[in-house]
């Protein structure tokens, strides 16, 4: 007979009578690179909040002490010194004095080499420095520029602590550094860092086979559309294969660059998600995701996977990983939780333990791509605005889809800010009052407002998102005589009104005429340049278009500086751009025109996704139980119904005169559709296709098709010719929110030359040869069929 409480157990289900519950907290912090004071404060807050909910292990994001985006500041010894100073200051404030194990991300220099590391601390004692073993070097990441990878088989060494730490409450001279497992009284813990989850042979496989119960990952993973599903799949599949609990903590917010780290902490056990954190938010700078994990479930799950046990027996003997005992001040092994057995009156109540255990979530929060666009760039805009301390935004609003999308993102930001204020988040209200100068910024003897006026302003609370937009957002329609239509002017005005922005309607043509007079004084005999519809040359036509576009940029910056002054306000506005990723790839923009701005929230988003986003934003929020399709997490859009007419209108730059027989449109100007551009972009960047590879891939993708091999060849050559001619424009591209994995951003993401031979003679010759051979083969086949039919 089996003892009471034991027997055959279904895989992954709790065993009756045994419970090993540990409480863990994953911290998402909105850090700011090199803001050591603010970063330290947010880390301290997260530790306090984790302790308040009873967590025994707290893990934060990657490089959270200094900020992930320090980039070449990692070459500066000061960055490492200040990080240690922050750790010492947190120790002196009592952050590490309890028996909660704290896992912090920071840079460490060991024997002259820099490492991206985790520092694990309990009761004022550093237990281990765990350097990152696999670095991220693709896409936006250049970690091996600043850090070295720690070899996985190097084991541990002794690390001499800096003087500032030795003299603090730590009272240590040296600590272990390297790849090791932390052995606690009731479990074993191992660490991964961000990229190590994504590599083909991730460390968690070895850790799991070595019997590690808990694996944590402090991450600095940025938002890209549809990326969360990949993270979720990797973590759930990892814990399904090896068993165990996985605690994923990611940074959240804009830390000073183009990326938005999208949080979404996860706690997963045996393939089941127990807890999920916020992915997008303006409400706070510190988010704690808590889960109570019964590690007995891990043991039972693994016992039912016979093949795992066989591999574990072999691996443990062949590739041992050092273990470090984590002890309390009295020398006993630290316990992260409590063991409870039914009928054992000396332990914590078994029933109370069972009640605390987190159960798998019934539904995982996965946003629609349209919702991701509405939330990610909007949160990025808010972080950028409040940290730059500017007065608000100015946007040239043309009445077309792209500038409408940028305006809609500002509207989304205002809605998020208003919702946070309604929920009682006073920090958001304080930031808003500071930005719109509702707080006291001058000493009383210099402030000319009456006491009543000051009090009314300092007690200001917005009553709607539109009231926030009226304070923060200025739109301007920059029309041009005979080029701009009444339809676009009205669409821009109506959308701005629906958002609540302060709107201006200006004519830039007098500025164009003034500059043409300057040109005429230089070349009086040349005559006045003409548009092509009036008989002008290509050069004349381009110059007349570009001068309008560039004047719009100059006027936009003038208005950004002086509009607040003209309205009796103080401060300066940030200029927003609205060129999408496809137009940048094609080079369909004027260098130093309205695409040149302070920041561009849609610069990393495709036209296809933007149109879907605008369609979503034009709808109203629906009831959760309405049964409507694709309502997503938010349950519907922003209710900006004016977007419908903008979506239906053909895209146009409105830089050439409108006649009875001619209206300028984008796709005709570009010589390709936006759908084709998106396909070219994905093949070029994601699939790493040059001209010849792209040609053969499109032959497969577009077959069977009425498009001949020769026509496909011409399309590919035209794209690469335009790409080569216009690549130089990417060097001055406005910093944009990163969202698409085929972005042509020359600054960080898509590193290539900017002076090309646009003839691509070798590559195009091979395309022509292939097209000729295919057509000859086709003609021969047709002739043979014809002959047989006769």
From TrEMBL:
Catalysed reactions, semicolon-separated: deamido-NAD(+) + L-glutamine + ATP + H2O = L-glutamate + AMP + diphosphate + NAD(+) + H(+)
Keyword Nucleotide-binding: yes
Pfam families with a match to the protein in the record: CN_hydrolase, NAD_synthase
Keywords of this entry: ATP-binding, Ligase, NAD, Nucleotide-binding
Amino-acid biosynthesis in keyword set: no
Enzyme class: ligase
Gene Ontology molecular function terms on file: ATP binding; glutaminase activity; NAD+ synthase (glutamine-hydrolyzing) activity
Enzyme Commission number(s): 6.3.5.1
Residues that span the membrane, as ranges: none
UniProt-listed GO biological process terms: NAD+ biosynthetic process
Boundaries of every CN hydrolase domain copy: 22-295
Pathway: Cofactor biosynthesis; NAD(+) biosynthesis; NAD(+) from deamido-NAD(+) (L-Gln route): step 1/1
Entry similarity comment: In the C-terminal section; belongs to the NAD synthetase family.
Annotated protein name in UniProt: Glutamine-dependent NAD(+) synthetase
Source organism (scientific name): Porphyridium purpureum (Red alga)
Classification of source organism: Eukaryota, Rhodophyta, Bangiophyceae, Porphyridiales, Porphyridiaceae
């Amino acid at each position: 007979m089996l003892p009471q409480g034991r027997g055959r157990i279904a895989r992954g289900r709790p065993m009756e009578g045994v419970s090993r519950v540990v409480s863990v907290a994953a911290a998402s912090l909105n850090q700011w690179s090199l803001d050591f004071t603010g970063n330290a404060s947010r880390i301290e807050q997260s530790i306090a909040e984790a302790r308040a909910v009873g967590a025994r292990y707290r893990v934060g994001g990657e490089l959270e002490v200094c900020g992930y985006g320090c980039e070449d500041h990692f070459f500066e010894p000061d960055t490492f010194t200040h990080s240690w100073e922050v750790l010492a200051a947190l120790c002196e404030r009592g952050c590490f004095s309890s028996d909660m194990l704290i896992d912090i991300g920071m840079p460490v220099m060991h024997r002259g080499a820099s490492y991206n590391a985790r520092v694990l601390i309990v009761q004022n004692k550093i237990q281990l420095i765990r350097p990152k073993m696999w670095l991220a070097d693709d896409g936006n990441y250049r970690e091996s520029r600043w850090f070295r990878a720690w070899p996985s088989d190097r084991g541990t060494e002794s690390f001499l602590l800096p003087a500032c730490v030795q003299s603090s409450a730590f009272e240590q001279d040296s600590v272990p550094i390297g790849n090791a497992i932390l052995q606690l009284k009731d479990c074993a813990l191992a660490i991964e860092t961000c990229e190590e989850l994504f590599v083909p042979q991730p460390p968690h496989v070895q850790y799991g086979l070595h019997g590690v119960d808990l694996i944590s990952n402090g991450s600095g993973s940025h938002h890209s559309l549809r990326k969360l599903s990949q993270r979720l799949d990797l973590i759930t599949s990892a814990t399904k294969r090896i068993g165990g609990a996985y605690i994923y903590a990611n940074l959240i917010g804009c830390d000073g660059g183009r990326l938005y780290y999208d949080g979404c902490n996860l706690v997963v056990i045996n393939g089941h998600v127990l807890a999920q954190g916020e992915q997008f938010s303006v409400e706070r700078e510190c988010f704690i995701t808590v889960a109570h994990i019964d590690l007995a479930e891990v043991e039972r799950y693994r016992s039912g996977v016979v093949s795992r046990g066989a591999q574990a027996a072999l691996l443990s003997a062949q590739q041992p990983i050092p273990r470090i005992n984590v002890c309390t001040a009295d020398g006993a092994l630290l316990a992260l939780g409590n063991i409870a057995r039914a009928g054992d009156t000396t332990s914590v109540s078994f029933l109370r333990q069972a009640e605390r255990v987190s159960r798998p979530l019934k539904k995982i929060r996965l946003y629609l791509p349209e919702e991701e666009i509405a939330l990610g760039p909007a949160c990025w805009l808010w972080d950028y605005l409040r940290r730059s301390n500017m007065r608000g935004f100015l946007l040239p609003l043309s009445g077309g889809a792209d500038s409408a999308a940028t305006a809609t993102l500002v509207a989304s930001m205002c809605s998020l800010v208003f919702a946070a204020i309604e929920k009682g988040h006073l920090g958001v209200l304080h930031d808003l009052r500071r930005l719109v100068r509702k707080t006291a910024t001058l000493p009383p003897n210099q402030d000319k407002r009456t006491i009543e006026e000051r009090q009314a302003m300092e007690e200001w609370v917005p009553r709607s998102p539109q009231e926030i937009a009226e304070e923060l957002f200025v739109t301007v329609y920059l029309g041009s005589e005979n080029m701009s239509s009444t339809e676009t002017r009205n669409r821009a005005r109506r959308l701005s009104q629906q958002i609540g922005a302060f709107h201006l309607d200006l004519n830039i043509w007098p500025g164009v005429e003034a500059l043409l007079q300057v040109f005429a004084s230089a070349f009086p005999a040349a005559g006045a340049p003409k548009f092509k519809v009036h008989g002008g040359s290509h050069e004349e036509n381009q110059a007349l278009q570009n001068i309008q576009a560039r004047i719009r940029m100059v006027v936009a910056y003038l208005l950004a500086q002086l509009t607040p002054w003209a309205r009796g306000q103080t401060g300066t506005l940030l200029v927003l751009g609205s060129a999408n990723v496809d137009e940048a790839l094609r080079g369909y923009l004027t260098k130093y025109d309205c695409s040149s701005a302070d920041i561009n929230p849609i610069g990393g988003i495709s036209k296809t996704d933007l149109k879907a986003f605008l369609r979503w934003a034009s709808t109203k929020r629906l009831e959760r139980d309405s049964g409507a399709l694709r309502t997503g997490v938010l349950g519907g859009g922003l209710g900006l119904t004016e977007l419908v007419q903008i979506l239906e209108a053909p895209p146009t730059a409105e830089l050439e005169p409108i006649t009875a027989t001619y209206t300028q449109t984008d796709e005709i100007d570009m010589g390709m559709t936006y759908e084709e551009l998106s396909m070219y972009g994905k093949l070029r960047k994601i699939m790493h296709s040059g001209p010849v590879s792209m040609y053969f891939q499109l032959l497969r993708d577009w077959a069977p098709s009425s498009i001949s091999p020769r026509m496909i060849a011409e399309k590919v050559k035209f794209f690469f010719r335009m790409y080569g001619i216009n690549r130089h424009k990417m060097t001055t591209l406005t910093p944009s929110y990163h969202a698409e994995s085929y972005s042509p951003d020359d600054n960080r993401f898509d590193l290539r030359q900017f002076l090309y031979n646009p003839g691509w003679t070798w590559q195009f010759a091979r395309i022509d040869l292939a097209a000729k051979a295919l057509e000859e083969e086709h003609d021969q086949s047709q002739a043979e069929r014809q002959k047989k039919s006769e």
